[in-house]
């Protein structure tokens, strides 16, 4: 099955700096890659996602890049703010069919702390 | 308000005492799923359902049961809980039949003594 590795496990930055979180996946058939943000005491919330036919996607201060050949994708947060402090999870899914259809595999999570 | 509602929010029980964690969504979503969250392991999928009466095992289904008799409800059943099932559990739903753009509940913290 799919295996997703996420790094780093913790990341500390100063307000205004950029933050980058990286994930690698094992199943070359995976074609959907979302990122979720989990604030303390809450459930994860989708912040951005990308499909395998796209190399990069941006939404204001957040961007995701995908390298299918290397099987890795990254989350980039620019001009970080204290409210960006949270746990971030990457995930991968093959939603085109096969035995893993419908399964979403998450990375281990990254605790991001933005210091004012 | 669109939401996924889980109950209870906190639960302490003893080994072997059957329990059910309820999950309900009001968005008419086809897909529902259960995850457990453990430190250092991220979120791991327990079971998922792409439609009513259709359920499939995720990556860690052992010790759990689910049912999908109605579209809005997807309860998680622990027939004989054990301490290694102490965890934070999340229910999620999405439109369509795959796990895209998931809406998560607020979580259930379960402790099995």
What would the keywords be for this entry?
heterodimer, A: 116 residues, mainly beta, six-stranded mixed sheet, five-stranded antiparallel sheet, B: 113 residues, seven-stranded mixed sheet, four-stranded antiparallel sheet, 11 strands, 0% helix, 50% strand, globular
Helices and strands, with pairings:
The complex is a heterodimer of chains A (116) and B (113).
Chain A: E1 4-7, E2 10-14, E3 19-25, E4 32-38, E5 45-51, E6 56-59, E7 62-67, E8 72-77, E9 86-93, E10 104-106, E11 110-115
Parallel strand pairs in A: 2-11
Antiparallel strand pairs in A: 1-3, 3-8, 4-5, 4-9, 6-7, 7-8, 9-10, 9-11
Chain B: E1 4-7, E2 10-13, E3 19-25, E4 31-38, E5 42-51, E6 54-57, E7 65-66, E8 76-78, E9 87-94, E10 103-104, E11 108-112
Parallel strand pairs in B: 2-11
Antiparallel strand pairs in B: 1-3, 3-8, 4-5, 4-9, 5-6, 7-8, 9-10, 9-11
Outline the structure in words.
The complex is a heterodimer of chains A (116) and B (113). Chain A has 116 residues and is mainly β. Chain A is 0% helix and 54% strand. Chain A has strands at 4-7, 10-14, 19-25, 32-38, 45-51, 56-59, 62-67, 72-77, 86-93, 104-106, 110-115. In chain A, strands 2, 4, 5, 9, 10 and 11 form a six-stranded mixed sheet that branches. In chain A, strands 1-3-8-7-6 form a five-stranded antiparallel sheet, with no helix packed on it. In chain A, strand 4 and strand 5 form a beta hairpin. The N and C termini of chain A lie far apart (41 Å). Chain B is mostly beta strands and 113 residues long. Chain B is built from no helices and eleven strands. In chain B, a hairpin with a 3-residue loop joins strand 4 (31-38) and strand 5 (42-51). The relative contact order of chain B is 0.33. At the A-B interface, strand 4, strand 5, strand 9 and strand 10 of A face strand 4 and strand 5 of B.
């Amino acid at each position: 099955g799919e295996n997703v590795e996420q790094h780093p496990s913790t990341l500390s930055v100063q307000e205004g700096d950029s933050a980058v979180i990286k994930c690698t996946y094992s199943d070359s058939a995976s074609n959907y890659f979302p990122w979720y943000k989990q604030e303390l005491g809450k459930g994860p919330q989708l912040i951005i996602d990308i499909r395998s036919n796209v190399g990069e996607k941006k939404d204001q201060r957040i961007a995701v890049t995908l390298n299918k050949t290397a099987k890795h994708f990254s989350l980039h947060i620019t001009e970080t703010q204290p409210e960006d402090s949270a746990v971030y999870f990457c995930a991968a899914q093959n939603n085109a069919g096969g035995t893993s259809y419908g399964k979403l595999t998450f990375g281990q999570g990254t605790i991001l702390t933005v210091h004012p | 308000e669109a939401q996924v509602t889980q109950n209870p929010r906190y639960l302490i029980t003893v080994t072997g005492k059957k329990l059910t964690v309820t999950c309900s969504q009001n968005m008419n979503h086809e897909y529902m799923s259960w995850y457990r969250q453990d430190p250092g392991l991220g979120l791991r999928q327990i079971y998922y359902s792409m439609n009513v009466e259709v359920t499939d095992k995720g990556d860690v289904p052992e010790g759990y049961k689910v049912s999908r008799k109605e579209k809005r409800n997807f309860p998680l059943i622990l027939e004989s809980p054990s301490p290694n099932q102490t965890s934070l559990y999340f229910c999620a739903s999405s439109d369509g039949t795959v796990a895209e753009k998931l809406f998560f509940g607020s979580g259930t913290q379960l402790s099995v003594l």
